[in-house]
Design brief:
The protein has helices at 12-21, 47-59, 72-83, 102-117, 133-139, 158-165, 190-203, 220-233, 264-281, 288-298, 300-330, 334-342, 354-364, 384-395, and strands at residues 29-30, 95-101, 122-127, 143-148, 173-177, 206-211, 237-242, 254-260, 347-349, 366-367, 373-375. It is α/β, with parallel strands linked by helices and 397 residues long. The chain starts with 11 loop residues before the first helix and ends with a helix. It binds 4'-deoxy-4'-aminopyridoxal-5'-phosphate.
């Protein structure tokens, strides 16, 4: 049977990561995957997470199956974290959350939910988008269309986005990244979010918000503002939440899918549909990460420690970005670096073509994606001048 299998496509980001693994040059720098690293180049377990793990291990709770929606306390805690403590009359009062296998699992379950409600529906994604958006949506049987994101100067193209999305109708869903857009680092301004919310309310399309980097852009509350604004303005909304980056729980696969509906009945049905989708894919999500997040969020001290660590991570990312732009300016490439400082979150787009990104890899052992994306959160502080020299070298031809 397997002899009949044609060569399948491989994941371009993991391909680059494997290529990096066999690169023996001492100066090699891996900026491909979105993983936070501290100033020494390590991806640490956050202190709040470590403490929560110790407490959980000491309490040694049973590993019996959880409910169909996973860890109920985790779902409640994430609902409140994302939408705020809105009370029963607010958005959180007409929402349900189902624990998922991280953000990717939430995207897939919500895509399944869309397909169940509106088979073959169209979902709009940004161009460029997170590499996995289209594959996940298409795997669930959905049609994908794109809307523009940036203008020629690399800024958010408000007019273009609104023009493209004017073609989205009542039966459509629009996938929006709530903050720290991957791969561009370019986010809408508050007035742009207002305009998007007004468009959704007027035309009736359903916002589908992907939240993977909240806390790593302008701060936790600020990064959640757009999601909360949309939730106030539209009757129905879908939210995929990842705890991979802001809790550093990458391999524990922790996240949740949130649905907001206009009636209690609709929300209940959507929750059951999400449970059913999970049941046929993997049955139930893993408990550990969800238990850790719950222990952190429910304890005042651990929550404060987590917030402080998250702020420190955000500060380091910001400092990396500013110092890369400053180094490039010093080397005579200030105009090219100007867009870098406006970007937010873990990623930056270098002002390089795919051929130049290849040269950056071949000549300087610096690995970013072919499209020019680098993980600005993945650089040891001492290596920024070396990155700037590589970029400047490539720009100089
Ligand atoms: N959405 C976006 C925009 C992402 O960048 C990522 C991870 N790179 C995810 C979702 C999914 O993350 P995970 O499944 O690891 O939580």
């Amino acid at each position: 049977m397997l002899e009949l299998l044609p060569p399948p496509p491989t994941d371009p980001l993991w391909d680059l990561t494997y290529e990096f693994g066999s690169d023996e040059r001492a100066e090699r720098l891996n900026l491909v995957l979105g993983v936070y690293r501290d100033h020494t180049g390590r991806t640490p377990v956050m202190a709040a997470v470590r403490e929560a793990e110790i407490r959980l291990a000491e309490r040694s709770e049973s590993k019996e199956y959880r409910g169909l929606s996973g860890n109920a306390a985790f779902n409640r805690a994430l609902l409140t974290l994302v939408l705020g403590d809105t009370g029963p009359q607010g958005p959180a009062g007409r929402a349900a959350a189902v624990q998922t296998v991280a953000g990717s699992g939430a995207l897939r379950l919500l895509a399944d939910l869309i397909c169940r409600t509106r088979p073959g529906a169209t979902v709009w994604i940004s161009d460029p988008a997170y590499v996995n958006h289209r594959p996940i949506l298409e795997a669930a049987g959905l049609e994908v269309r794109t809307y523009g994101w940036r203008d020629a100067e690399g800024r958010f193209d408000a007019a273009g986005v609104l023009r493209d999305l004017a073609a989205a109708g009542r039966d459509d869903v629009v996938l929006l990244q709530g903050c720290c857009h991957n791969p561009t680092g370019v986010d809408p301004e508050p007035e742009d979010w207002e305009a998007l919310a007004a468009l959704a309310a007027r035309d009736g399309w359903v916002p589908f918000v992907d939240l993977a980097y909240h806390g790593l852009g302008d701060g936790l509350e600020a990064d959640l503002r757009a999601t909360r604004l949309l939730a106030e303005r539209v009757p129905e909304m879908l939210i995929a939440v990842s705890c991979s980056k802001n809790f550093g729980l990458y391999s524990d696969r922790t996240g949740c899918a949130i649905v907001l509906g206009a009636s209690e009945r609709a929300v209940r049905h959507a929750e059951t549909a999400l449970q059913n989708a999970a049941r046929t894919l993997y049955s139930m999500p893993p408990e550990h990460g969800a238990a850790v997040v719950t222990a952190v969020l429910e304890d005042e001290g651990l929550r404060a420690l987590w917030r402080a660590e998250l702020d420190a991570m955000r500060g380091r990312i910001e400092a990396n970005r500013t110092s890369l732009a400053a180094e490039l300016a010093e080397l005579g490439w200030g105009a090219q670096a100007a867009s870098l400082v406006r970007q937010r979150g873990m990623f930056s787009m270098l002002p390089l073509t795919p051929e130049e990104m290849l040269r950056l890899r071949r000549q300087y052992a610096i690995y970013g994606t072919t499209a020019g994306r680098i993980n600005i959160a993945g650089i040891e502080s001492g290596r920024i001048p070396c990155l700037a020299r590589g970029v400047a070298g490539v720009l100089a031809g």
